[in-house]
Amino acid sequence: MSNQILQKKQLSDDVFQMRLSAPLIASERQPGQFIMLQVDALGERIPLTIADADEKQGTIDIIYQVVGKTTSLLSRLNVGDAILNLVGPLGKPTHIEQLGTVVCVGGGIGVAPMHPIAKAMKQKGNHVIIIVGARNEKLLILQDEMRAIADELIVCTDDGSAGRKGLVTQPLKEICERTPKPNLVLAIGPPIMMKFCAETTRPFQVPTVVSLNTIMVDGTGMCGGCRVSVGKEIKFVCVDGPEFDGHLVDFDNMMNRLKTYIPHERGAHDQCKLNAQIQKKI
Amino acid sequence: MQTQRANSKKDLNKILSMSEKTAQELMSEAKEIFAKILPRASSLTPKERIAIPAQEMPSQDPHERRKNMSEVAIGYSPEQVRLEAMRCLQCKNAPCIKGCPVAINIPGFIQAAAEGDFQKSINIIKQNNVLPAICGRVCPQEEQCQTNCTVGKALKNKNLSVSIGRIERFVADWERENGKSESPEVLPETGKKVAIIGGGPAGITVAADVRRQGHAVTMLEAFHKPGGVMVYGIPEFRLPKKIVEQEINTLKNMGVNVETNFVVGRTRTLNDLLGKDGFDAIFIGTGAGLPKFMNIEGENLVGVFSANEYLTRSNLMRAFDPQAHTPIYPSQKVAVLGGGNVAMDAARTAVRLGAKEVHLIYRRTEVEMPARIEEVAHAKEEGIIFHLLTNVKRVLGNNDGRVQAVECLKYELGEPDASGRRRPVEIKGSEFMMDLDTVIVAIGNECNPLIKQTTPELSVNKWGNIIADDNGLTSMKKVYAGGDIVLGAATVILAMGQGRKAAESINAELKRNSSNDSQKQAS
Fold it and tell me: Measured between alpha carbons, how far is B157 from B12 in angstroms, rounded to an integer?
């Protein structure tokens, strides 16, 4: 059955991995692309990145953090349940080519979409340096998978519970200082991390690609809710992106636009949590 | 013509907006007149027909409807529809048909309606139009069939033409509500496969016309519900979604396979549909779904939305329903930029979602507004404040990056431009501020780039519209296109008109192919 949940794994407190039956998406998707899903008929459509796919099995993997109502509902579905609507793959694929040294920076659950990109970059013959960051050890995901790909793997945590203590921008800066400089930096993670990765590489003039995750309704160019300023031009993340030149993205505006529905979402999420607690008690 | 429309608008206000008659009063008045006329119905002289009062559309009270999403226009009573139909002079030359993009036999269906034979009436319409309940509601009749009506001309007022659209709507509703709708007949299977990309008005028309000939039809829709602009764009209060659903069900009953969540250009490329999936013909009807912005300062502030986004949240995602999870911006003071139907829809939606003040800002005058006259009138009745010859120069935000105000500029009309409309010219130093929290941009759409991005051999013009010949054939063999993706943002009925033509060409091509196939087999 299409859209069925075949596997479910809790990676940390609020991070889940699900394997979904989606043969059409699995056969077409390429690194860098995303899907949109709607959990049930009253649900919101949200974009989620594709962490992995198996064309033969006809499956895709999604990894998501519970941050709002939709992800909360999604986390309560179990193996055997189906997601009402699932569409994709959406967005332009990552441009994969042999460049030399490629640095892949993944922050938080940004490590998930980075995984297939790093894999493809490695397969293309690049020297792949992977920097992964998280608040603490518990929130680090896909360590083994990344280690298997990386020529160099650098782990950072905010509290020092694993790897280096500090932000991903520190090792990134050190790598940029090497001779020769890396040929490309790819950064996927929280907007603030991508912003500072771009700021870190800017003085070194290392091309830096970021993958944006903005508010979307349709994911096909129709709503314009995902628009961002890139080099003073309006771009739509869904059809022009999700990847853009990190040195040209107006991150402050993008972060602000992500807060459009924050009061609404907070209310909805709290209500959702409350309902879940009530259900548990009953 | 423009001044005529302006003058007649005053009359229209009398008819439409300023009417103090309730739906019930209108209907009981019609009942009385009808009773008097009925005995002589078959022998009315043209003069007597013209003297029958034009029937107003009974509508929900403006104060009430501001608070609900239900349809504004209630629809004619049986007496009203027959009276309105009796106004028709049955002109031999039928100027109305010339104005109809799908050439419905208008005098024919109106005569049947006048006689009270609603079944016959709807049957006549359905020979040419697969979506009468929808077209009766959203067609710009005053620019099409009703514009050349002899009755309107005799009364020197285009708005007093026979209300062809309202009669169409009545008989289509009558059929549906009485359970008389039947799926059109489908010929035996031919073994040919046709893919329709996009489940909007153009796609629905092609799907029905091609399926009737016995070809297997698969409709590929990007959203989770088919219907296109009729589902995501046009609000419930103007076009109830159950009507669109019913039309889709008719297609399904005919054997059309509807696949949702399928984005051609991403889920599958056009070439794979032809190659891997073996479709014998493809129709592209993906619409004009890429909102335009004004490229002014502050346009990316929180609180600025495309009308597409605002309307999709409310319509398709049902954000007006407290049970639905999709949020919509909680607005107090809203400005809608634009003067088309989409602008009216967005403004009237904002009112219903609880905005205290809704301003409509349009660069030209009311005469040039592309919106249907009825929508403009309804918007005014609902308290939308019109600012004509005005444009927004920039959007200003507060410290949180949220919309706080817009700076506007006044315009005056100058010389006519290429479109024949007088060009609005800005008045220097006329800037003024309006405090607001929401701006909705409804200045049109560009073409969706997805199929073009992954099909470089498909020819498009400089605006990204797919180039198609008179038969709807594109630069690629077996690939046809129609509707807004070819026309640029237009109307439901024009999309259907193009769909009809493309369907005819597809059916002809497939017929040629199968006779070639059988010749090959014979030899």
Answer: 9
Q: Which of A87, A221, A224 shows the shortest C-beta gap to B261? A: A87
Q: Which residues of B touch A228 (CB under 8 A)?
A: 300
Between the alpha carbon of residue A94 and those of residues A31, A211, A226, A247, the distances in Å are 6, 9, 18, 17
Report d(CA A51, CA A116) in Å as an integer: 7
* Cβ–Cβ under 8 Å, residues B137 and B237: no
Whether residue B295 lies within 8 A of chain A, CB to CB, comes out as yes
Count other Cβ atoms within 10 Å, centred on residue A20: 25
Spatial separation of the C-alpha atoms in residues A207 and B478, rounded to whole Å:
43
The answer to whether the CB atoms of A88 and B267 lie below 8 A apart is: yes
Q: How, if at all, do strands B304-306 and B290-291 pair?
A: unpaired
What's the order of all strands across the beta sheet hosting B385-387?
B304-306, B438-441, B333-337, B357-361, B385-387
Cα–Cα dist B275/B268, whole Å: 11
Query: Looking at the partner chain, which of A220, A227, A253 has a beta carbon nearest the beta carbon of B263?
Result: A220
pTM, two decimal places? 0.90
pLDDT tens across A77-102, in order? 999 999 999 999 999 999 999 999 99
Q: Distance from A218 to chain B by nearest Cα, in Å?
A: 7
Q: What is the number of other CB atoms lying within 10 angstroms of the CB of residue A234?
A: 15
The continuous run of DSSP H or E covering B411 comes out as strand B403-416
DSSP state of B139: S
Nearest to B290 among A87, A221, A261 (CB): A221
Gap between the Cα atoms of B500 and B102, Å rounded: 8
> What stretches in chain B show pLDDT beneath 50?
1-18
CA B18-B346-B177 angle, to 5 degrees, is: 70
Q: Does B267 touch chain A (CB under 8 A)?
A: yes
User: How crowded is residue B199: how many other Cβ atoms within 10 Å of its Cβ?
Assistant: 31
Residue B510, classed as helix, strand or coil, is helix
Determine contact, residues B361/B393, Cβ cutoff 8 Å. Answer: no
> Taking CB atoms and an 8 Å limit, are A217 and B326 in contact across chains?
yes
Q: What is the pLDDT of residue B1?
A: 35
CA-based end-to-end distance of chain B: 63
Whole-angstrom Cα distance, residue B456 to residue B476? 11
Residue B211, helix vs strand vs coil: helix
Per-residue pLDDT band for A266 (boundaries 50, 70, 90) equals low
CA distance B503 to B500: 5
Burial class (CB in 10 A: 0-12, 13-18, 19+), B281: buried
Which residue carries 């939606």 as its tokens? B349
Assign 3-class secondary structure to chain A.
CCCEEEEEEEEECCEEEEEEECHHHHHHCCCCCEEEEECCCCCCEEEEEEEEEECCCCEEEEEEECCCHHHHHHHCCCCCCECCEEEEEECCCCCCCCCCEEEEEEEHHHHHHHHHHHHHHHHCCCEEEEEEEECCHHHCCCHHHHHHHCCEEEEEECCCCCCEECCCHHHHHHHHHCCCCCCEEEEECCHHHHHHHHHHHHHHCCCEEEECCCCCCCCCCCCCCCEEEECCEEEEHHHHCCEEECCCECHHHHHHHHCCCHHHHHHHHHHHHHHHHHHHHC
B117 touches chain A (CB under 8 A): no
Beta-carbon contacts below 8 Å between A and B = 122
Asked if A6 reaches chain B (Cβ–Cβ under 8 Å), the answer is no
User: How far from A230 is each of A13, A96, A233, A234, A245, CA to CA, in Å?
Assistant: 35, 21, 5, 6, 8
- Taking only the tens place, the pLDDT of each residue in B135-151 is 999 888 988 999 999 99
Q: What is the pLDDT of residues A246-255, one digit of tens each?
A: 999 999 999 9
Q: Which chain A residue has its CA at the smallest distance from B307's CA? A: A223
